[in-house]
Amino acid sequence: PMDLVMSWATTRNVKLRSGRLGEALGRDFKQNQEWGLAFFLVHEWDRKEESPWYPFLRLLRMSVLSSKTLAELDGTFATQLLRDREDEIALILKYLKTNQCNWDTAEICEAFRDPINLRWALSVVRRYAVYVRRR
Asked: How far is it, in rounded angstroms, from Cα 41 to Cα 97?
């Protein structure tokens, strides 16, 4: 059922004080679906027990390489990919500051300011999310 799915479509069911989450994140999903879904995850994570998805979100873990593994990968293409991921977090924060969090969405933007939350959410999206197309 759609009530259990976390997607662009279900953001319209999440009420905010000033409207619906779908209205606030619609532009972000159009810009980059992975980012939009990551913002949705961060928002629901920040709501804690108020979120119907919180019990599920608590189970989702971010994969992190150990220091030893990172040392062994130093100088390889994998290291560059990891750097690109970190650069993307900085890019997301810049995007949020100039696009999403510069207008009347203070209630959703506070949780987005934490790079740790964004790193976790983007990792979860890339690890677990699947694209579903309507026919």
From this structure: 18
